[in-house]
């Protein structure tokens, strides 16, 4: 990382990060400078708020990282777009506008965290505030490195490590192995877990901040990735999952023995901070994630500006077991009855490449537009938080860890299955676990592409074309259809495409080597 980039990141750590003291407001309030800052408790809180500014960034958890999720067999790109097609086809070079800013933006989060870690310890403020703000900084640094390590690092090279100790340096090297990043992630998240409160200790204005369970959850997720290189890490996965379950915050699935409603309700606005919530993109009508509208019908039937990206494949639709309530909660198909802007209607689409639409995030669209949607359709945020880690992920990560250690993993899998209206199974295998993760997390940032990569299943999955339904009359919900190929088979090379290319500008600026083969 050259001097220009390092200084730019430092500047971003000290400016443009001031937000309302109400965390959920997400509204920036001017700029700050090092000369007049780091004096009061409000300063420390403002700085910690800046760690979450990326929640409002389309290039991050609006669509950005979803271009990588979109590489899976669960969905196809819904509109003609050369850059996103290159990513999905594994022919990208990292310079595509869809994906060329995420790498540096994760480093911006890291630099903001580093600045807090370097400045806050000396501040004369309440110890409880100091501990929480530092805990948030360690959490967000570990969180940012988790995504960088997952997407850009492997056994050939990790990702440059920038901390409060070396953040003013002008050059950085890539570690020899990504496990160096994973060890740092673990250290940061353990510090965060020691400092952060349980989510139950937060008042309403602080819900959405990093919390103790979120730190343990990302520790489990990091060790799932680490287990690709060291099978002993599966025991760590189980340990951290148990720490979430037993933290005292009352984690449990939303399960009232009503499968037709329970899974769907996980993605209701009333459950933004439910017992299943662990960490999510905080959103509201003015700022936040645009993902729900990104998945909505392009131009929204002339009613609201949906963007029409990321359509579920027929393969995903057919992968659900008979009787799985998650299928109807996850996918809309032609002739399904649903409520749109207060009126009941039958689903059809003149836009969908596959004849399907993701339904998970549709609750804000049930009501009149003014209630839960941004009136500006060019920035179509909503009141619905978008989950990054749910308790179901904790249960299934523990089950996977148990199976991988030759133990019985039925308990967690069956909790998830039973909520979906499915019968319990005995002697669950990795095939069972894989199917459960696909059915539970379709269309979420709990990334199936990453799962397929780490399982060694991506090459076989992507050697098959993606299919969908071609309806004779796209404006008739009852129209008949034929099955068509909507995306041809892809050439996935597991020796190359298990990581993504680092954007060329960042490679050049840092003087580091590109990931081999890209």
UniProtKB/TrEMBL annotation:
RagB/SusD domain location, by residue? 306-518
User: Per the database record, which ranges form the SusD-like N-terminal domain?
Assistant: 94-221
- Extent of the signal sequence: 1-20
Could you list this entry's UniProt keywords, alphabetically sorted: Cell outer membrane, Membrane, Signal
Chief place where the protein resides: membrane
The listed locations are:
Cell outer membrane
Question: What family does this chain come from, according to its entry?
Answer: Belongs to the SusD family.
Offer one Pfam family short name for this entry. Answer: SusD_RagB
Q: What is this protein called?
A: RagB/SusD family nutrient uptake outer membrane protein
**Record InterPro entries:** SusD-like_N (IPR033985), SusD_RagB_dom (IPR012944), TPR-like_helical_dom_sf (IPR011990)
Organism lineage reads as:
Bacteria, Pseudomonadati, Bacteroidota, Sphingobacteriia, Sphingobacteriales
